Amino acid sequence: MQTNQKITKIPLLAFSDSDMALKQMVKITEDLKRTYQARDNTLLAVNEAHHQVLMRLAIAAEYRDEDTGVHIIRLGYMAEKLSTLLGESEEYAFMMRLAAPMHDVGKIGIPDSILKKPGKLDVNEREVMNTHAEIGFNILANSNVPLFKLAATIALSHHEKYDGTGYPNQLAGNDIPLAGRIVAIIDYFDALTMDRCYRQTFSDDIAIKMVLEQSGTHFDPNLVDLFIENIDTFIKLRQKINENPLTYNQLINYSLEIFM
Ligand SMILES: [Fe+2]
Prior knowledge:
Bound molecules: fe (ii) ion
Order of helices and strands: HHHHHHHHHHHH
Number of strands: 0
């Protein structure tokens, strides 16, 4: 059967044409690669800048409360470790490493007369001191950056208690964000066992007992169980960090593996 359809002939490329086309394609691919590389580098730089800002905030807060510098580094790694043991994603655990050190950033808004008072705080002073949770939240909140959001959540919720008697919102049980429940335990344990100018250090055994005594009241009982089951790992981690004090920049870049 005959048709009137015309057959379009595709001209064959001469060797030199196809060679040129290939060269052009390679050039375009390389240009694209460079563009993507530049974009990735910019994104990495922005990401790093977010981390740096958070760390600088933490440093600013710690300048007010001098003897806690290494405490917040330990806190970062311990928060990461507990998150990993819980089965949380690697990404979440890493964000916990960077966000947990910011938990007390609100102390920047507490007067020295209260923050550095050597003795016990009276009721009014305690009330002012407790506002550091909300101050921290206000400093960190209203950002779309996930790391800032997590840091804000921790700042606001790390003094809530599992039985609902904490502050500032008297949240109870799982209404307390997981990140706040994690930081509550490790902050308490690490603060008890570190040297502070105003009180003696507790032994690990006593600190463990004190954590266990408050399981289900102050702390999430499931997290306490997991923390105590792995206490040797946390003590080893603490020891390694004390032996190799890190800078804040190193906290961003060094994974847990270098300690374990
Ligand atoms: Fe706090």
